[in-house]
Design brief:
This protein is mostly helical. The protein has helices at 2-37, 42-57, 60-81, 92-117, 121-129, 134-164, 176-187, 190-219. Helix 1 packs parallel to helix 8 (190-219).
């Protein structure tokens, strides 16, 4: 049975890769979504609001299946209209990363929007008065403070995102949940393998929580009394 445990550990590396790649996608989408909501331009505000409302209202499992199977059908239909006879199969890793990133991008949008709104507007106006460009103002003034305000909610989103990666096992990606299921079916001892997988998820979330707590303490220096 030790071979199955090594296989699950190997799948854990894939789980970490999916988590980190999804986090990157979610963060980028979240920043763009927050910028759109705060832009004051009605089309962008409406589009970002519709995105966050719809995505947060649909179960993650259903969204995963819709994008993986619906995306493949849509691409093949488009190729057929263009006169191509070749079909397209979505890569499970890319589909899983884009789906999870797309889902949690909606939550990150609200996280970053709230963090930016928590910063006194006068600081940005002062930067503009000194001739700083909007981009430089964001990098020098808004971003460092935004991180401090966003980290608590960002931490929660990240911890939930890690656990949500188990959904990629449903589209054939050999993460540790998929391999635990295969191992339990082979030896008919599901409890041991699923308990081992649960312990790995707990380890990942515990390590992440400690790292993000230290990061939060670092960005809170000079503003709050914190213990490093």
């Amino acid at each position: 049975m030790s071979g199955y445990y090594y296989s699950i550990l190997h799948g854990a590396l894939l789980t970490v890769a999916v988590s980190l790649a999804s986090l990157l996608v979610a963060t980028l989408i979240g920043l763009l979504g927050a910028a759109a909501k705060l832009s004051g331009r009605r089309p962008l505000v409406w589009l970002a609001t519709a995105y966050t409302t719809v995505v947060r209202g649909i179960p993650e499992l259903l969204m995963m299946l819709l994008i993986f199977y619906g995306g493949a059908i849509g691409l093949n239909s488009l190729l057929e209209l263009l006169g191509s006879d070749q079909g397209v199969d979505l890569n499970p890793f890319a589909a899983g990363v884009m789906t999870i990133g797309f889902i949690y991008g909606a939550y990150m949008t609200e996280t970053f929007r709230g963090a930016i709104l928590a910063i006194p507007k006068g600081q940005m106006e002062a930067a503009w008065a000194f001739g700083m460009s909007p981009l430089r103002t964001f990098i020098r003034i808004t971003l460092p403070q935004m991180v401090r305000y966003a980290l608590p909610s960002f931490t929660n989103n990240w911890l939930v995102l890690i656990k949500a990666t188990a959904l990629v096992s449903l589209i054939g990606l050999h993460d540790m949940t998929y391999l635990a299921k295969q191992a339990s079916a082979a030896v008919r001892e599901p409890f041991a393998f699923f308990l081992f997988t649960a312990a790995l998820y707990l380890l990942f979330t515990a390590v992440s929580l400690q790292l993000l707590k230290r990061l939060s303490a670092r960005y809170s220096l000079g503003t709050d009394k914190v213990q490093l």
